[in-house]
TrEMBL record:
Any single Gene Ontology cellular-component annotation: membrane
Stated name of the protein: EAL domain-containing protein
Domain EAL positions: 23-279
Taxonomic placement: Bacteria, Bacillati, Actinomycetota, Actinomycetes, Micrococcales
GO biological process, one term: signal transduction
Chain segments annotated as coiled-coil in the UniProt record: none
Full-length numbering of the shown residues: 228 to 508 of 512
Keyword tags: Membrane, Transmembrane, Transmembrane helix
């Protein structure tokens, strides 16, 4: 009825205004954080299943907001995307993560096979400026390009037009690694796997959730591994939370994995201790 409609309007409008105000305040805060302080990268080990050694880390962003406390990326990355802040954010992540790798190399903590993985947004991928940024950061830090691996979601790549493919090719031309993130969650055909200039896939954790409980799951994992290898690629398995899952993956011939079972994402100060632990095993 008309009365109800009016009522709803009254309830709704202040709510929308509030959300809009919160949003624009949050954006202002995020802009300030990118320029100043508050953003931090945590690093989660990627482990070689055969040896237990750490072969690299994934950089994962967090935002320590002055009044709201820690905000996780799933909450503010979409906001940054919408507001056109993602390029600035992406550049910050890139230079911070590669700069950190440089310091670990200089401190002799890691060798030349150790890689840092960086999450790249679809917007970054579509910007030619991003390739230039990667080139500049590599030059400035003198890090071997192969030690930098860019993670792109299936969705970002498949949204794929020619420009995306061009950007991927351009990035790969710099010598950096390219990895498809969240593999297995997309809706698209898998035929693109063979066509795209990528090196590896990171299999989404939903594909290993049932390992150790669901008897049909090992066969599925084996099939995915076979598929990935048939395309000339290698797989990294994420979201490993239990010893059973790790053991299953190892027995199935999987090479690399990541997850809370090995380590949560940690601040960079904690990485040396983790490296020391695993190399002495
Ligand atoms: P993602 O790239 O798929 O990252 C993996 C997420 O799973 C991380 O959440 C990580 O903390 C979490 N995780 C790791 N091991 C386990 C496990 O064993 N079990 C479970 N349940 N979860 C695990 P986080 O750090 O909250 O990041 C969420 C997403 O935000 C990332 O998903 C990525 O898409 C995005 N993101 C994070 N950092 C960045 C960044 O610097 N730039 C961009 N563009 N996106 C980022
Ligand atoms: Ca990732
Ligand atoms: Ca993922
Ligand atoms: Ca994800």
């Amino acid at each position: 009825s008309k009365a109800e409609g009016l009522n709803r309007l009254h309830v709704f409008e202040p709510g929308l205004l509030l959300i809009r105000r919160l949003r624009s305040q949050l954006l202002e805060d995020l802009r300030a954080a990118i320029k100043g302080e508050g953003l931090v990268l945590h690093y989660q080990p990627v482990v070689e299943l055969g040896t237990g050694q750490i072969e690299g880390v994934e950089a994962l962003i967090r935002w320590d907001h002055p009044t709201r406390g820690r905000i996780m990326p799933d909450e503010f990355i979409p906001l940054a995307e919408d507001a056109g802040l993602i390029s600035e954010l992406g550049l910050w992540v890139l230079s911070t993560a590669v700069g950190q790798l440089r310091r670990w190399i200089d401190a002799d903590l890691v060798d030349s096979r150790f890689s840092v993985r960086i999450n790249i947004s679809a917007t970054d991928l579509q910007s030619l400026q991003f390739i230039e940024d990667v080139r500049a950061v590599l030059k400035q830090t003198g890090v071997r390009p192969a030690q930098v691996v860019l993670e792109l979601t299936e969705a970002a790549i498949v949204r794929g037009n020619d420009l995306d493919r061009y950007s991927l090719g351009g990035l790969r031309g710099l010598g950096v690694g390219i990895e498809i993130d969240d593999f297995g969650t997309g809706y698209s055909s898998i035929s693109y796997l063979r066509l795209l200039p990528v090196d590896r896939v990171k299999v989404d954790r939903s594909l290993i959730e049932g390992l150790g409980t669901d008897p049909s799951q090992p066969a599925l994992v084996a099939a995915v591994l076979q598929l990935v290898r048939a395309c000339g690629l290698e797989a990294v398995w994420e979201g490993v939370e239990t010893a059973e899952q790790a053991e299953h993956l190892r027995n199935l011939g999987c090479l690399s994995a990541q997850g809370y079972f090995f380590s949560k994402p940690v601040p960079p100060e904690q990485i040396p201790a983790l490296l020391a632990q695993t190399s002495s095993q």
